Design the sequence.
């Protein structure tokens, strides 16, 4: 028993020393790694702006991804839904309609209780497709997570809110509520501000306005977001670099939109879907705030017929046994293919789902599940949404400065990490990966510049200073332990 206690103390010492060496090492990248949780949301949770004209059917059964942060002084702990489809960081208050008449399971915030909060104005407004709306004040306050603090972050306080979740939007500032929902109903960039990603850059926490998302397997309880860097251990094959394109809905570069070039089914062989050739390339938003996938009606009809999917009360239903199928829905992006397995698409209905169907005199037969692909409400025209059902199968890197998205097939449950910093400048994702031992990135199309013109993908030859060598760090740790304890530790890691 004594040796076990000693081992535990030694292990704790190793962990503590590792954090010290990582923090002080010149080779450690300037990045912020942050784990988020996958939680089933109560009915009514949805984080999608109303100016995206889609019908999201599978809202009662949705899982959402939330991150735990503390806001203000003294710290107030809340959970935030990570949303790449919006840009504001905002929190419910305890006396909002949502919290007083329903529930606020993700926590609330009081600006009056924080000595570090500063009032800006009362212009905050956000409207969502199903989940209601929120209005209130814009303030600044300090937000802490993953061992760092973002000072004076501008955020919304939802004094009048009917939304369940607190939202952490990390898209372009052009998608901020004050821009999209200006009082006169027009697009207004006058109130645009540094959101959380840009604020992290301005305060030197990261070098570039970039982040990487890894959601892990559908059965996993957590995923991670990495600000300012790429984790090459979390994807397989080359990382395809895609240009972010203009959002067809707004006509502006204000959403994380890429061109989807094909959708096909793999059911033992590759079966192309019979869709109109004019439907592809199709604009698609990569959106963590949406639980499902929305596709053109023709595409949905083909998928539904292949897998015996039916739509009842606006909800796509399928046999639960489909989750065990080896079939995949394959999404093509100009040379890159992301295969989404059925287990990531098929969801078991909750007791709430069953009760809702019973309320409408519809009984779900035993063995019936909810299918996580829906048709666009606008038919074959409109912006697709590639939500969590898709994103669990992809590792995605977002570069807001160079208007690029890097994408590769995810590596589920990897062992360890290999973090590569994305430096400021035009090199972006491609330049960062040249410093690592991962497969060289491939590029597709041209990168739109801030003025809307196009340029070729920039190439750069950075140094290797941004690459984190975990093995090297552990050798330093073990050497230091040897000095402290007088023992000899193996460095064969």
Sequence:
């Amino acid at each position: 028993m004594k040796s076990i206690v000693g081992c535990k103390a030694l292990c704790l010492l190793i962990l503590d020393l590792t954090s010290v060496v990582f923090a002080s090492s010149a080779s450690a990248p300037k990045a912020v790694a942050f784990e988020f949780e996958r939680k089933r949301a109560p009915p009514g949770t949805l984080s999608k702006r109303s100016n995206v004209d889609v019908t999201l059917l599978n809202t009662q059964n949705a899982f959402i991804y939330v991150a735990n942060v503390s806001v203000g002084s003294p710290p107030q702990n809340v959970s935030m839904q990570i949303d790449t489809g919006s840009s504001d960081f905002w929190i419910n208050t305890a006396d909002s309609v949502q919290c007083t008449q329903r529930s606020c399971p993700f926590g609330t915030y009081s600006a009056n209780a924080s000595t570090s909060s500063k009032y800006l104005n009362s212009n905050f407004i956000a409207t969502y497709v199903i989940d209601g709306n929120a209005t209130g004040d814009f303030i600044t306050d300090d937000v802490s997570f993953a061992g760092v603090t973002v000072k004076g972050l501008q955020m919304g306080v939802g004094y009048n809110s009917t939304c369940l979740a607190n939202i952490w939007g990390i898209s372009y500032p052009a998608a901020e509520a004050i821009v999209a929902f200006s009082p006169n109903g027009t697009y207004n960039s006058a109130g645009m501000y540094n959101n959380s990603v840009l604020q992290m850059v301005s305060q030197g926490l990261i070098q570039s306005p970039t982040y990487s998302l890894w959601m892990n397997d559908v059965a996993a309880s957590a995923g991670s977001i990495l600000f300012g860097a790429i984790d090459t251990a979390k994807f397989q094959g080359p990382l395809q670099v895609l240009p972010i394109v203009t959002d067809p809905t707004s006509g502006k570069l204000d959403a994380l939109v890429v061109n989807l070039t094909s959708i096909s089914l793999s059911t033992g062989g590759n079966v192309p879907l019979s869709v109109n050739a004019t439907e592809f390339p199709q604009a698609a938003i990569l959106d963590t705030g949406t639980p499902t996938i929305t596709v053109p009606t023709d595409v949905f009809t083909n998928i539904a017929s292949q897998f015996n999917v039916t739509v009842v009360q606006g909800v796509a239903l399928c046999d639960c046994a489909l989750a065990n199928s080896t079939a995949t829905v394959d999404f093509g992006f100009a040379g890159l293919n992301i295969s989404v397995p059925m287990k990531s698409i098929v969801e078991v209905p909750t007791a709430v789902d069953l009760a809702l169907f019973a309320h409408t005199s519809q009984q779900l037969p035993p063995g019936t599940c909810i299918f996580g692909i829906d048709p666009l409400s606008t038919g074959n025209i409109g912006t697709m949404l590639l939500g969590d059902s898709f994103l669990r199968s992809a590792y995605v890197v977002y570069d807001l400065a160079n208007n690029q998205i890097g994408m590769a097939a995810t590596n589920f449950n990897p062992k360890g990490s290999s973090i590569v910093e994305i430096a400021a400048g035009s090199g972006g994702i491609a330049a960062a990966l040249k410093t690592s031992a991962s497969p060289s990135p491939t590029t597709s199309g041209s990168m739109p510049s801030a003025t809307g013109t196009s340029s070729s993908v920039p190439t750069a030859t950075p140094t290797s200073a941004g690459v984190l060598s975990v093995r090297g760090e552990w050798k330093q740790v073990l050497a230091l332990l040897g000095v402290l304890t007088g023992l000899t530790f193996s460095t064969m890691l």
Notes: The radius of gyration is 23 Å. DSSP finds nine helices and 31 strands in the chain. The longest strand covers residues 148-161. The CA atoms of residues 83 and 465 lie 31 Å apart.
